[in-house]
From TrEMBL:
Keywords: 4Fe-4S, Iron, Iron-sulfur, Metal-binding, Oxidoreductase
Keyword Iron-sulfur assigned: yes
InterPro entries given in the database record: 4Fe4S_Fe-S-bd, 4Fe4S_Fe_S_CS, Cys_rich_dom, HdrC_iron-sulfur_subunit, Helical_ferredxn
GO cellular component terms, A-Z: plasma membrane
Protein name in the entry: 4Fe-4S ferredoxin-type domain-containing protein
Length: 607
């Protein structure tokens, strides 16, 4: 309006460039004298200034209005994000700290605070995150938990923590707070002037069910990382969720019983199934060529180009062993010199870390780092540190992994344990070998396939192209993407140690993903499943189609349904048993396009 009044006072008589939009209003003001136009200018200018002042006063009085405050807080929140390079803060979890200092798990201090059980335990960056939320809902729309009828909404999580922080602020500013034993730190005089509402808010447990009047329900404390990837102001949801989960697991011992079995097996046997160490080499007897073992066939890894980190599933799980043997055979055909650890390695500890049992992760990680130091021919001093004389550069310590979780843990999280390695995924190495002509696809495979991006491969490590490049080189094979793929890919539901736990609320996430893959009848979806479990689910769903039962992708229930409707309950068999419901029909083996051998398939990414 002010622009139109300016045009009327300057006698604009056409659609000029600077008055193209406002000219209709200018023409409507034609005929008014200069004095009237000036008075109208004063009125609308005053109205605009008054509106701005009212808005500023409202924002100042309501500091929890994220829709408004993000305009001021977004820049510092992005500037102070964890990853200084500007990438999303996924990959490695933050090390556990107490009072801003890392916790020494070998000799912990009595006053160390493990995880977050009270609002004041969050860092200043966490409080800034809570206040910066724009309430746009992008995180929620991408969240696999929310889309399958579960209580986790990253948006509502951050908003609940923000509202709790502002409601509790008068109590904290008066010096209030509770020790780990629940004793009040402030005196009665200090709390005398604190509003009753703030005192009541201070009594609420940070983590608790609705019956306990908790701020955050325990069922909310799981994550895949899609929220962090989608947030326009770089809120780091996963860091805060893991901090709260660390307290639940390490102090309250609050985690599903089946997860306890997995942690016990990891701690005692070094793998989630509790199998004997010698069984890690059983798969090598099923191939017709020799696979060098470090410390047995070769002294150290200086004699080979790559260490093949097979991982627990790759060495011990029957379905994943198919991938292991196929990949090893392809390396052998291409003439790549590689070796394996031979049973001295333990589980990388990914599930323990994501479940938030930090001591178990530290134990497994340190043992693996020490084993890798010896395998790469390095030496340690009396303090367990690699000596300067024997230390090798990162480029001389190459590891290839088929499991995205192993890749992420060794490549990103072992840096915190002084383990610095060049870790690549097996699809990256295979793509390189195909590009160099050392592996040439020979057998045509007619059809259309679709590829699932594992969260720990794509979202956390930005590896999207190699698997697609490999399939693009296979004659007759075409890749057709699912609706949710690459950066907007949908979680399979196994990350965050969820593979080892029951999924009792809403629709199973892996079923949702499989149904999406099968929603296009032309898809040949048995080519590159991310989990062995997916292969079983694919086979089962395809069998249902053949029997005429049909498959209909599940729809997310609306919030009203979630509050009033009875939850759907999925049942997963006990740890170590078959998953996927009943006797699943597995995909039929087909000739390998790289070797022409019907006994092997293209390596399958294992998540």
């Amino acid at each position: 309006m002010l622009h139109a009044l300016e045009g009327a006072q300057h006698h604009v008589d056409g659609y000029e460039a600077s008055f193209f939009i406002s000219y209709p209003v200018v023409s409507g003001l034609e005929g008014l004298d200069v004095s009237t136009l000036q008075n109208l200018t004063y009125f609308f200018a005053g109205l605009k200034i008054a509106t701005s002042f009212i808005w500023m006063i409202t924002v100042a009085l309501k500091t929890d209005m994220g829709v408004a405050w993000h305009r001021f807080l977004a820049f510092p929140n992005i500037w102070f994000k964890r990853n200084a390079k500007g990438e999303s803060s996924l990959g490695a979890l933050l090390p556990m700290t107490s009072g801003g200092e890392p916790i020494d798990f070998e000799d912990p201090d009595e006053d160390d605070v493990h995880g977050v059980s009270q609002l004041e335990h969050f860092s200043w960056m966490g409080l800034l995150d809570f206040s910066t939320c724009t309430e746009c809902g992008r995180c929620q729309s991408q969240c696999p938990a929310w889309n399958t009828g579960k209580p986790l909404s990253p948006k509502l999580l951050i908003m609940s923590l923000r509202d709790h922080a502002h409601a509790k602020a008068p109590y904290l500013l008066a010096g209030g707070g509770k020790s780990m034993e629940g004793e009040e730190k402030a005196s009665e005089e200090q709390l005398a002037s604190v509003p009753k509402a703030a005192l009541e808010e201070a009594e609420r447990p940070l983590i608790g069910t609705a019956e306990e009047n908790g701020v955050i329900d325990p069922d909310v404390l799981w994550s895949c990382g899609a929220c962090v990837e989608q947030c326009p102001v770089d809120i780091e949801h996963v860091d805060h969720i893991v901090d709260m989960r660390r307290y639940q697991v390490m102090i309250e011992s609050a985690f599903p019983s089946e997860a306890g079995t997995m942690l016990k097996n990891m701690e005692k046997k070094g793998n989630p199934w509790g199998l004997a160490k010698k069984q890690r080499l059983e798969w090598t007897k099923e191939v017709d060529f020799e696979i060098p073992v470090v410390g047995k066939d070769i002294e150290d890894l200086t004699e080979v180009e790559y260490l093949y980190w097979v991982g627990c599933a790759g060495a011990l799980e029957d379905r994943a062993k198919k991938t292991t043997k196929a990949f090893a055979e392809l390396l052998h055909i291409a003439g790549v010199k590689f070796a394996i650890m031979g049973g001295d390695e333990k589980c990388t500890g990914d599930s323990a870390s994501r479940l938030a049992d930090e001591p178990v992760f530290q134990q497994l990680g340190q043992e693996n780092v020490m084993a890798l130091i010896m395998a790469f021919g390095e030496e340690c001093d009396d303090d367990g540190k690699v000596t300067a004389e024997s230390k090798k550069p990162r480029t001389a310590k190459k590891i290839v992994a088929t499991c995205p979780h192993c890749l992420n843990t060794i490549g990103n999280e072992y840096l915190q344990l002084d383990g610095d390695y060049e870790v690549i995924h097996h699809t990256q190495l295979l793509q390189h070998l195909v590009d160099e002509g050392k592996l040439i696809p020979v057998t045509p495979v007619e059809g259309i396939i679709t590829y699932h991006d594992p969260c720990y491969l794509g979202r956390r490590n930005k590896i999207y192209t190699p698997p697609r490049e490999i399939t693009a080189n296979v004659p007759g094979l075409r890749n057709e993407e699912m609706h949710r793929h690459k950066e907007r890919g949908f979680c399979c539901g196994a990350g965050g140690a969820r593979m080892w736990m029951e999924e009792r609320i809403g629709k199973r996430i892996n079923n949702e993903r499989v149904d999406e893959a099968l929603s296009e009848p032309r898809h040949r979806v048995d080519g590159l499943p991310a989990l062995p479990d997916h292969a079983d689910r694919l086979g089962q769903r395809q069998e249902e189609r053949r029997q005429g039962q049909g498959v209909h992708p599940g729809r997310r229930r609306c919030p009203a349904d979630r509050r009033t409707g009875a939850p759907q309950r999925g049942v997963r068999p006990p740890l170590g048993g078959a998953r996927g419901g009943g006797q699943a029909q597995r995909p039929q083996a087909r000739p390998s396009p790289l070797t022409g051998d019907s006994a092997h398939e293209l390596p399958q990414p294992v998540e």
